[in-house]
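Reply to dn_fold:

You asked what the input looked like. This is it:
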Amino acid sequence: MSTFSSQLSLADAQPPSAAVEMAAHRVSAVSLEVRAGKPAVSALASEALPEGALVPSLTASNARDRQAVTAALKRVLDEIGRPSRIGLVVPDVVSKVSLVRFAQVPARTQDLDQLIRWQVRKAAPFPIEEAQVSYVPGIHAEDGQDFLVSMARRDIVAEYEAICTSCGAHAGIVDLSTFNVINAAIAAGAVRGSAAEDWLLVNVAADYASIALLRGANLIFFRNRASDADGTLADLVHQTAMYYEDRLGGAGFTRVLLSGASSAGARQAAGVDEIRRSLEERLGKRVETVDPRGAVTLTDRIAASPLFLDTLAPLVGLLMRDRVSEAAA
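and this is what came back:
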């Protein structure tokens, strides 16, 4: 999956032992430790944000009440042991995600960087000179090589990083929520990242929902919609399924996964229940919840409620990059 850090691939950098997610209505953090040779959750904390304190946006400042966001982050970091180095998960809507294909890939990294920036510049709702762009290779097809490209305004990424710095934590990795839910699903063994099998993920937040189609560990379709957009989430999933069959040569999903429903709020969660039923009827597949416990163990004192698992999934996904790399190999 893509990342906004200096690393181009989540599998290329040594992951930290703690991760933070800043979402529209809460800040969450988790720390891992090794127990009996396996990663285990040592602490998890979550703090609600005041309404409007953090408003995720692609084109405008996100921290509307920086003092409130900073205070919440400081409290959750205190609860997990005050790590000085973290990975940071941010809302999908702060980034524009594109899939591009090149018939020929430049041999030099500098030339590839320039080609990708030139290719995605028209899709950027801001000058490409202001964008922080990252990419990872996708599927290699007969007619070319795919790349998954993420771009965000550099000053917005810096805004999130600065809040972490003010709390004594360096965010060496900044990445999107859904990308790391995908990582969690692969790391937990819910899907086989090395297999040429197609699967669908619906990731729901309080203020948006994202749909990802994957072939093994490779993203082949990604779409994001705001919660107040026209049409229902069911409509979007149905349109995506049609596109998958008609344009992507889809032969059917081996798994259909859902994440975020319990933490998205009552209004969104009710919509997701409807999506679950309609997906099962439409695709003939049981819709399963992303459960990161296949990747990490929990202590006896931690209760694994649906809200806990939804909060944990993107954080574990970011921290388990090495296992994702092995699964995709």
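Residues 6-12 have pLDDT under 50 and may be disordered.
Hope that clears it up.
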